[in-house]
Amino acid sequence: MAKSNEISDDLDRRIETLTKRSTLTRAQIIEDALSHGRSLAWQEKWIAGVEEGISAADRGDFASEEEIASVLNKYRQA
């Protein structure tokens, strides 16, 4: 049985964009989608979240000590 690597232009563009926005190779992105069920949409959303987090950190936008304590206390077992 012959292998076919043809995909739509849209998927090809999205994969290429993901490779430019991450440290992953084209093969890693496709492997992640096929083996782990992480769709391109999921990967795009995840990378956007990481980029936003980095931007927030670059702006000095961090949680205060009170906010961190509040979250930790919320999940601390009684």
Tell me about the biggest sheet? none
Report the principal-axis shape. elongated
Enumerate how many helices there are, as a single number. Answer: 4
Q: What percent of the residues sit in helical stretches (DSSP H or I)?
A: 55-70%
Query: How confident overall, as mean pLDDT?
Result: 90
Terminal-residue CA separation: 60 Å
Indicate the topology.
Layout: H1 9-21, H2 26-36, H3 40-58, H4 65-75
Helix pairs in contact: 1-3
Write up this protein.
- With 78 residues, this protein is an all-alpha fold.
- The chain has one domain.
- The protein has four helices and no strands.
- Helix 1 packs parallel to helix 3.
- The longest helix is centred in the middle third of the chain and has 19 residues.
- The radius of gyration is 19 Å and the shape is elongated.
List the defining traits of the structure above.
78 residues, mainly alpha, 69% helix, 0% strand, elongated
What's a quick, concise take on this entry?
This protein has 78 residues and is mainly alpha-helical.
